[in-house]
Amino acid sequence: MASKAEQSEATRKALVAEARRLFAERGYADVGLAELVRAAGVTKGALYHHFGSKEGLFREVLRQVQGDVADRIEQAADALPDPWDRLSAGCRAFLSAGADPGIRRIMLIDAPAVLGWEEWRAMDEAASARHLADALADLVDAGAIAPRPIEPLAHLLSGAMNEAALWLARSTGPTDEEDTVRELTGLLDGLRTRG
């Protein structure tokens, strides 16, 4: 027989898993509280106990999605020895993750609307901006880009990639993703030191 702590954790996991599935399929606004708890096989009281509200549950789903995307980016980047190749691979991995309709809906479309711009940006920064800033700092240290303020550059690139992922989500051209990666590569190449 499962302990109370194990039952509590199972309830929490069921709520997050079902919320992630439903939010990815239909979006936050089109998923009701009753449907969430029914899908997870728990009570509304359990949801309120663990997350305080539907918004609190969404916040946890977003945290999980952001963590999964960060893991994909790290995995792609860490597989390469060259800091420049790591940055490029990480950026491409982000665009690829953004092509997933569920990730895009939760992380880029619903999150700013549900949580507000400031909270969404803070969570985005905590989840992935530090990886981008670290990659850029590695490039400065390696002499691949000239010394410069890293924080504004990381924000500029992060914003560009978020916008590119959203644009790709609505695009219909057969070469749009390839074109976007090529343009991103050109943008990044503009940062490189020559010599």
Automatic annotation (TrEMBL):
Gene3D superfamilies: Tetracycline Repressor, domain 2 (1.10.357.10)
Boundaries of every HTH tetR-type domain copy: 9-69
Keywords tagged on the record: DNA-binding, Transcription, Transcription regulation
DNA-binding region: 32-51
Electron transport recorded as keyword: no
Listed GO MF terms: DNA-binding transcription factor activity; transcription cis-regulatory region binding
InterPro entries (UniProt xref): Homeodomain-like_sf (IPR009057), HTH-type_TetR-like_transc_reg (IPR050109), HTH_TetR (IPR001647), Rv0078-like_C (IPR049484)
Pfam families assigned: TetR_C_41, TetR_N
PANTHER family: HTH-TYPE TRANSCRIPTIONAL REGULATOR BETI, HTH-TYPE TRANSCRIPTIONAL REGULATOR RUTR
Full protein name: AcrR family transcriptional regulator
Organism: Nocardiopsis composta
